[in-house]
Amino acid sequence: MRRIEQHQQTLVNWLNPPDQNALETAIGFEQVAIEVTASVAMHEPDPYLKQVYHFGMLEDFDHLYRYAALMDRLEGKDANALTQCYTDIRAGRPTLVEHRAPEDDLREPYDRATAAPISKLNALTTMAGEHQTHDYYMTVGPTFADPVARQLYAEIASIEEQHVTQYESIIDPYETWLEKWLLHEAAEVYNYFGCYSQETNPRIRDIWERFLQYELGHLHYVMDLYKTVEKRDPAELLPQTLPEPVKYASHRTYVRKVLNQEVDLRASGTQIVPLKDDSPASIAYRDRMNAAGSPSQTVAAGYTWGPGGELAMQNGKAKEVQP
Question: pTM for the full model?
Fold first, then answer.
């Protein structure tokens, strides 16, 4: 099964066009993180988990803005040519203040016995996406010649590790290994079904359908193991029908609302708190991390998104246009 998953990941990753450079891919990662996390948050029934998703989403929102500034700096290009007005390009919770002491990145896990199935699927979906993003930045970051680009990837990769920790920690550690495996397979079914049901390209839709069939086979295999080894009914864990899938669509209105209301929130221990209650440990950690400056601030100095990027600059500064 791991070999099959390996080949699935290979095919999905190889769907990216060969003329798409590493920075363009990073911008795509951040747009996915914003829109998927927004969709997950909108359908999350647990108020605490919803706020956790909001917290991470606003940080990924800022990462998109920083990478857009880097694209303008390195290539003189407009990142909106990629995001296509589905996602705003503007500052979120500044990456500068996202650095936290490790103890402030852990969150309270859902309760395996009482959590809704969609809460478990949401956690696994978001956690997997953050893993992929973190690993990609760690791989491509050193390949840039521009020193600010190298530093920016290093800085954002550090925050992505914090996100991986955050989303891993909301998963109940008391789930058995087989319980976790069963939920992972259910999450793959859920996500491939979402891709299949929304895909408009016939060739790509056939891939999602084939992989959905693969994952249904994996799920039934693990269900049999679960019944044989743990002597439990998989129906205790699985929903009778698939929840509404993640929406691969623009959530600009929702994201703007969250940005306006929650951008100043911070983390203290496992809680999301007002700015005035920020963790002293994280404040001290942040001061040390930023003692020699912040690459995310450097890259965006004097940058304001405007249509067309550098080529459309007026008087040396891009004119900001709100869509």
Answer: 0.94
